[in-house]
Amino acid sequence: MCRAPTEDGSLAHSLAPTVSILVPCFKAAGTIVKAVGSALAQTFDDIEVILASDDGEDYAAMLDCADPRLRQVSTGGTGSGDGPARNAALAAARGRFIANLDADDTMRPERLAFMLPFAERYGAAVDNTALWIGGCLTKTAFPAAPADFRLTAEAILAPRLPMNALLRREFAGGGWRAFDFCSDVVFNLEVLSRCPEFRGLARTGYDYVKRDGSITQSPDTADRAARGYAAIIAAIDAGGLDLTPEIAAAARAEFAANASANEAFRAARSAGEVENLEAWLAS
Question: pLDDT class for 49, splitting at 50, 70, 90?
């Protein structure tokens, strides 16, 4: 899934590719080959893939790949978080459009080719993320949506799934916030507040994979969620997020409700009724 440089050593594509794909990497040795392979295999190939190492690992070396579209940067730390890692990659990005790919997820081959016309026209688009747990398809973000539709704050908040958009660079603002939980949700809400129209697409092109050790599968899920929700609510109340008043109100109500639900989950887990957040949400 990698290709060699041209004979004169020049890049096969321009120095300013159409799409920059950002890949935050933390303890990702077991999944990085598959994730990056899915990015480099896109049928729309005027791309660059920027790995952001957040643990000091040389992920580019793990790929054994000479593809000139691949680069690596570092956060300079360990466990800085997905937001700072994405922002390190964003700072190095040269594309007119930005996409994000988590290091344990994959993109289907025609994803960018399908999404790009919508992002060109409207400013940003997000497709129907599929959630996989234990090799089984569990749910999708937009199970009953029309082929394409105008995204709302509710559509971003309700699925409780990370959704990774394709967007014009100018709508990324300062990038992702450094919250312990739901930084991707906040980012999408800020994009929704900035761009002319954020489109949702019913077609599935992104596979979100939860494994043992994933945030919502971990023993400290409730603690991380509580910190994250509290920080997000405080930022909304202080006017510290780039949100319209309507979107800020919807977000605050949802995160406050999520914080209350998180305490119910904490109690159920302490009582031995459930093992993890996904099991509790499904109960």
Answer: very high
What does the longest C-alpha to C-alpha distance in the chain come to?
A: 65
Q: Kindly report, residue by residue over 157-189, the tens digit of the pLDDT.
A: 999 899 999 999 999 999 999 998 899 999 999
| Phi, psi of 200, rounded to the nearest 5 degrees | -100, 140
Phi/psi class of residue 34: alpha, beta or left (left: φ > 0; alpha: ψ in -120 to 50)?
Answer: alpha
Q: How far is CA 270 from CA 150, 198, 219, in A?
A: 41, 40, 10
Give the C-alpha separation, 239 to 234, whole Å.
9
The CA-to-CA distance between both ends of the chain, in Å, stands at 40
Query: Which amino acid is located at 196 in the chain?
Result: P
pLDDT in tens, 15-44: 799 999 999 999 999 999 999 999 999 999
